[in-house]
Write a structure and sequence with these properties.
about 120 residues; mainly beta; 11 strands; globular
């Protein structure tokens, strides 16, 4: 069982930056593929970024590529989402998610554990 707690959301002007954090419980964090998703009002939850348990570089949705960076610190059981050059379209509730030993995991239903979400609002 993994519990996830996001933090770091808030209100920022367009062009600004935020860093989201997701702290995970449990002793096997390094075995989990971690993802970030977001959901805007009236829209479906969408994939943002993923980092495999086995390492390597992150995988990103086209809408955030070049602006967002996903990273993890296994010693701290934490995954991060650095968001730069934010746009009003990035406004959403952001969720982190985890799935054990997954090699793809690009859609929400492939993840087993979810955080409660953190609100990100980008003003124009």
């Amino acid at each position: 069982q993994v519990q996830l707690v996001e933090s770091g959301g808030g209100l920022v002007q367009a062009g600004g930056s935020l860093r989201l954090s997701c702290a995970a419980s449990g002793r096997t964090f390094s075995s989990y593929t971690m993802g970030w998703f977001r959901q805007a009002p009236g829209k479906e939850r969408e994939f943002v970024a993923r980092l495999l348990w086995s390492g390597g570089s992150g995988y990103y949705a086209d809408s955030v590529k070049g602006r967002f960076t996903i990273s993890r610190d296994n010693a701290k059981n934490t995954v991060y989402l650095q968001m730069n050059s934010l746009k009003p379209d990035d406004t959403a509730v952001y969720y982190c998610a985890a799935v054990l030993l997954a090699s793809r995991a690009l859609v929400a239903n492939q993840y087993d554990y979810w955080g409660q979400g953190t609100q990100v609002t980008v003003s124009s």
